[in-house]
Give the backbone structure.
Amino acid sequence: MREKNKSMIDIAVIGLALFAMFFGAGNLIFPPYLGTNAGSDWFTGFICFFIADVGLALVAILAMIKTGDVSMNGITGKLGKVPSVIINSLIVLCIGPFLAIPRTAATTFEMGVMPMFPFINSWVFGAIFFGLVLLFTIRPSGVVDVIGKFLTPALVICLLALIVIGYLNPIGEIATTTHFDTVKEGIMAGYQTMDVLASIVFVIIIISAAKSKGYTETKETMNVVIKSSLFSAVALFIIYGGLAFLGATTSAGGFEGYNQTALVVAITQTLIGDYGVLVLAIIVFFACLTTAIGLVSSCASFFEDLTKGKISYRTMVLVTVGFSYIVSNFGISTIISIAAPILTLLYPVVLVMIILTFFGKHIKNNNIFIGAALFALFASAADVLLGYGLPFDFIRSMPFGAYQCGWVVPAIVGGVIGKFIPMSQKAILATKKGNSDVA
C-alpha cells in the first residue's frame, strides 16, 4: 500500500509539473478569447482547442513510447541521422532560447509588471526572472519537484480561484454569436500554442524525473510517464474549460475590441476589482516561470546528450539563460517575427512524423516517412514564402489551407510516392537493427 501511495504521489507531482510546463501565457489568453467570440458555442471551441493542443501533444508522447525510443529521435529518427539532428536542434532552439524562453519573460514583463511597476525596465526585470530560472534549473534532478510540489500549486490555486469566482458570479449572460468560425478558430488557437513541439522536448525531463524517483525499469518508467501525461491532460482540460467559460460570460457585450491579452486583464478586473491586476500578474508570473524552467532544463539536457557530455548540463543552462535574457529585451512582437517562419517550416514536418510514428509498426518502408516529411516541408516553405509576397497563393487554396494546414494533402502524396521507392540495403539493415534494439 505504501508503494502504491508513493507511486500516486509521484504521478501527481510529475503530472503537475508537466501541466505547468505546458501552461504558459499563450495558453492563458487563447481560451477566454475563444469563449467571448464563440458565445453559446464556447464548449465546441474549447474542445477543438483542446484536441489541437493537448490531444496532439499526448499523441506525440504516446508515439515516442510506442517506438521504444522516448527521445526526440523516436519521432525524427526515420528521416536519417543528419536530417534528424538538424530538425531536433532547430526545434529545441526555437522553443528554447530563440523564441519560447525569451517570450515567457517578455510576456510576464508586459502583462504582469508594466501595469503595476511602470518604472521598472525590462533589463532589470529580466535579470530577476532569469535569476530565478537559473536557480531552479541548475540542478537537473530538482526541476520537476520544484515545479510540481511548489510552483504549480500556486498557479493552479490562482487559476481555480478566478474560475470559481467567475462561475458563481458570471460577468453576464452567454449570448449566441454570429460570424465566428468556432471550429476553425479553436483549431488555430491550439495549433498556435506550439505545445506539440514542446511535448517531444519535455518528455526528456519527465523520463529523467521518473528514473530519479526509482522507476528504472523501462516498463515502469513508461507507465509513470503515461499516467503523468494523462493526469496533466485532465488538469489542463479543467483549467482550459474554465477559462473558455469565463470568456463566454463576456459574449453579451461590453468587451468588444479587446485583443487576447487585454480581454484577460478586463475579465480579472471585472471579477476581482482593483486586485485583478495583481492576481493576473501572479498567474502570468507563475505560468511563465514554470514554462521557462521546463524549457531551459529540456534544452540543456538535449544539447548535453547531443554532444555526448562534451558540453555539460550546467554550461548549457548558463548559455541558454544568458542568451534568452538578451533576446527577451527585444519585445514580444520582435521575438515572434524572428522565429515564426522557422516554426512554420518545422511544425508540419514534426506533425507528419508524429502521426506516422504512431502507426509506425505498420509502416515497413522508411521512404514513406521521408516522402511525407519532404512534401510537407515544401508546402510549408510555400506558405512562408507567400507571407513574404512571393506568388505561392495555391497553398491557401489547398484542402485545409484555411486552417494553415495546406501541407496535409502534399504530405499524403509524398508518403504514397515514398511507398513505391524501394529502401536501400543500408536502410533495411539499419531498420532491422533498430527494431532488434527496441525488442
The chain is about 75% helix and 0% strand. The first helix runs from residue 2 to 22. The domain at 2-329 is CATH 1.20.1740.10 (Amino acid/polyamine transporter I).
